[in-house]
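Section 3.1 - Work completed
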Amino acid sequence: MAGHIDHGKTTLTKALTNVDTDRLKEEKERQISIELGFAPLHEDEEIQISVVDVPGHERFIRQMIAGVAGIDLVILAVAADEGVMPQTREHLEILDFLGIRNGIVAITKIDRVDEEFTGLVKEEILEELKGTVFEDVPFILTDSLSGKGIEELKQLIILTLKERDTRDAKGAFRLPIDQVFTVKGQGTVVRGTVYEGKVEEGQLLKIMPNGIETRARQLQVHHQPAKAAFAGQRAAINLSGVSKEDIERGEVLVSSEHFSVTKTIDVAVRMVGDLEHIVKQRMPIKCHIGTAEVMGKIVFFDRNDLSNSEGEILCQLRLEEEVVAKRGDRFILRRPSPQETIGGGWVIDPNGEKYRFGQKTIENLSRKKEGTPKDRIKAALSDDKVLTVSEITAKTSLDELTVKEILKEEDFLSINSKEFTLVAIKEAVEEEIADRLNEFHLENPMKQGANKAELLQAMQNKYPKMLVEFVLNAAIEESAFQRKGQFLQNKGFYPHVPKSWQKRTDNLLADLKKDGYKVKPFDEYYASAGIPENLKGDLKRYLEDQEIVVPLDAQYYWHGDHFRKAVEELKKSTAAEFEVGNAKDVLGLSRKYMIPFLEKLDTLGMTRRAENKRIWI
């Protein structure tokens, strides 16, 4: 909901949603919006719609820009008794620079003027909209107090949004933060519009650009509890492990580190149509990108100043603070003093470098801006990791034949007959698996390896599960990793006792072996060896897996050599069928050891019990 101050945006929002978005005491007293306001409008099986009411006063332009970032549809409110005003024009320019193409003009307060005057206002608006992205948008006449046109506007909003393509929720999650607050008993909550990807309850996240790690403890979407939030949805996320003071509006909540954190950005800029002051080389600017507002300077490579709009200009922004950005992100530029919007554009490359002044740099930026078809495909796969041919064509605007030809090149990899990734991504996944396994081996040297299911689970927030499985299976075939049942190992790894406890383990085994068949409970040997209690589980499992010891039951263990010797003696000295008494005669053991030993043979499938007898298998 955009428009000039006092043109009825908040009242119109309330008429549509029955929610007063002016929450602050100061907003009530001054009767103007200062902060962003949010109100749920409509929800059914197909769609959820919320209204973002943005401040209209020029002093609150920062909040206005934060509010429209990531929006699908704009209602431009124009009061019938005032018509087009300065902020109306500025908001139109900002919407154009941000690439918002869907709009509806709501002429408000129509009960304050007669029908003829309303017609004149409409003509004035039509004239103002000529040549803008809103030139052909529909008009609705409304009065929020009497309710005229409100239901028609609501139905038009729903119809317009249902005709839009659903946002793509693939790829890494990104939410520019526009509100931070605390809820008693819950802790820190951030709110914003999900730009891309999805977030799930319990998911590990990072607050960029500072890299603070956190977790999504609870989610709300459109003011309702939810298990997940998707691209395009308005979400509030309760974060664990961070305080309100750790976070600021303008920071970004992400699920992946592939987003660039940068201060130097190559951009394509368009200036406003009627610049009041010349834009000079290296002039201070205020850059609004996502929900961030950062000071910096604009650097030209083919001029030293700009006095009027000359179409798209290739240049660079050098910022004083880091921001999170990626190719294609939109931004607005404002002059700090005197305050005015001077232009806007999109990010060509978030990782700009310092270039020489001259035409050669402009030519390089131009090539970078256009991007080869291969560059566009690589950029799409870098974002989403795995895509089908049809998904690539949709994201790159390339024809299917071109896409298929480029995918044959060595930079690309077919996962199956339908889906593709980059060789670089495959290598990155393999490297991360190796790093995770190496870390696991260092922490758990006596274990067979990491559980495959747990490894897949740990990586699925960053990569699709099927991609990790594909890379893992290929690496196992190439012997980069080893698989033992459900466990994974790095090549060349074998379970072992840490050097620091090897001598005491040897002493334990020597004592166990010395006692032959008539052993004490295993825990007594363990206690005598002086090995820390927290290692007991891993050590016992390791000794069992390596068949160095064999548990007869939960209490008694034999040295593996004695167990194998007992089996050999018993098999040599008994017939195909034998009874407990026969076994006792051979081994000279009491029932205390004999019964657990025979039951162990049954468990291992070496014998089968038939009433009072056992049969060798």
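Second construct:
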Amino acid sequence: MNQNDRLLDELRGYLPEYMAQKRMVVGRGKKLIRCINPQHSDSTPSMSYYPKTKKLHCFGCGATYDLFDVIRMDYPDCDSFPRQVKKACELFGVPFPEDFGRDPAASPAPRAGTRADAAPAGAAPLRALTPAARISPPAPEEPAEPPADYGALVEEGLRRYGAGGAYFAARGIPQRLCEKYSLWQDGERAWMPVRAGGRWACYCARALREETKPRYKNSPGAMELFGGDHLAGEGEGRALFITEAIFDALSVEACGYQALALCGAGNTRKFLSLCAANPAAANSYTFFAAGDNDEAGRRMNAAVREGLAELGISCGAVEWPEGAKDANELLLRDPDALHAALDAAANADRYEYERKNAASAVGELLDLSVKRASRSAVPTGFPALDDLLDGGLYAGLYIIGAISSLGKTSYLLQIADSIAAAGSDVLYFSLEMSKLELMAKSISRISYRLDPSAERSDAFTARQVLRLDLGMDERRAALLSAAVEAYKKTGERLYYKEGLMDIGVQEVRAAVREHIRLRGRRPVVFVDYLQILKPSDPRATDKQNTDRAVVELKRISRDFDIPVFAVSSFNRENYRNAVSMEAFKESGAVEYSSDVLFGLQLAGAGEQGFDVNAAKARSPRAVELVMLKNRNGVPYAKIEYAYNAKFSYFGEGRRILR
């Protein structure tokens, strides 16, 4: 099959779509239509379409037609096969080979249905086109004729019959539109002229009775765009609906919107070319594809939207109600439904925006409130801190900062252990210490709390837990055993993720998701600590990477509805000063994205004569937890602690409000 044969085969496949433009549905099972042979008065539908041959055949008169036969019937000027092929290419947006018909090898075999013996007795046969006629050299080019102008026809039609008529009224088209677009009817047809380029460029005349053939009588040549003048000049703006047929465009305008009819899906390229030639007008509109509610209409919508997208113009689409065929059918059946469909398309962006106002979110707020009411806060194990936080930890981002060696990890770990011991899952990301070192600190703290001796002299330090004295006495061995057994119960809900510059916020998110999938429980997340998370972008600055990490941890707390507690280091220049938001390293996102912000400081920090080394040397150390920010509660407070660094234990004291 050569190139021209492939072209002809492709075009013949458009016959069902062509017939659909004539409001004659073919190709769906064995559904019959009335024969289109003008010499056959077909009172009972007797013509069917055969997909294999891509032809129509009438059982009554025996006539058989392909796409080119039907085009020749509808377009009298297409009196040669090359012209029929060219017309088909124009209608369906297919490039027409300029040398078509010059090469005898491109000639198709004679087509069944054009023979005189295919017509019934008494019927005028269709004129046969011989192969020789189809491949004869084209006639010499004639001087270009001026564009057609049917102004006199329109003027005479309106003078004799007046605008409008019963047929248009029956199709739901108001008189004002008949006058606006110069529509009229005579005794046989409803006339719909089309303006283009300031002239009446073409027309479509629809038969008023079934027996009038052809059903659609178009002016010679290609149809122009009905309503194409919307794209002339600078454009009117607003919504512009793109339909297939003129009556559908009129139906849209009857609802108060602007519309443009392609007058055939093949005019899609003509519409896009008009948009490209008039960018100011095209860009002033919001376009909506409103093709028929069938496969051909959906293809038209897709072609319009894709073509406009290539021009950088967005285009929505109308969602027709179930059972609706097109705009005009819906106008006649349910005008309110057509209004609603057009309104929904034209105002989709506004409706979507309105759904974002606060009133629309009240239901979401109540749903969240009910959900959280059924879930109590997670106690930290420090009563004064829980009281300050209205019961404990809620979903959100908590950040705590302190100078080096002040006990940030010990404080965080004590909270994590208490939460796990109380029955909640904990996911602890340790980016500096190994999980065994952390476990040793926890067991050391437990041994300190369980030690019955007055001076707690039998308690174990973390180093002693990691390196046991095998010669310990029986009393210390029993204490260690009790501490280990107590820790086992805590450890059943405590999961460590250790890493060294290989865990970033995405790994944290993935681990949280995996924990929920495998455990079916949302964990409380601890990150120790911010500044050594894996950078999101190695080329970015430390501040940029820290900011991104804080924002993402906040997003994780929101997405999974969980508390996330992270440690941050302080700037060195703040080691002797009282804690403040400025003390946090790279503090931009820490200050703004955190829900609750804490600082640990040695008691007396910032006061005159304060000696940081002397304060650290005390045992236990006098430490203060300072609340610097609380998005949903008391904005500022202090809690006193006695920190026994040797056994990683914080003893809570009194709470001080400013």
